[in-house]
Amino acid sequence: MYVCLCNALTECQVRAAVEEGAGRPRDVYGACGCRAQCGGCTKAILCLIRETQALASGHRTAEA
Predict the structure, then answer these.
(1) 2-56 falls under which CATH superfamily?
(2) Which residues form the BFD-like [2Fe-2S]-binding domain (predicted)?
């Protein structure tokens, strides 16, 4: 699923960036070779960062 339409970033790309160490939206954009455009996806990216980090540390989230 697309998370960022401006940069055509998918949920899988965001999760992969987080698994490689991205901890903030700007880190995700950088890892994917782009930068924020309109900012409409920032909340979704933050949610994915938190969810991916929680899953990696063995904690369940409310969405999972």
Answers:
(1) BFD-like [2Fe-2S]-binding domain (1.10.10.1100)
(2) 2-50
Q: Where are the domains of the chain?
A: 2-56
Question: What pLDDT does residue 19 have?
Answer: 95
The answer to whether the beta carbons of residues 41 and 4 sit under 8 Å apart is yes
Neighbouring residues of 4: CB distance < 8 A, sequence distance ≥ 6: 14, 37, 40, 41, 44, 45
Q: Nearest-5° angle of CA 32, CA 6, CA 13?
A: 30
Encoded amino acid at 17, one letter: A
Tens digits of pLDDT across the chain (64 residues): 999 999 999 999 999 999 999 999 999 999 999 999 999 999 999 999 999 999 988 866 555 4
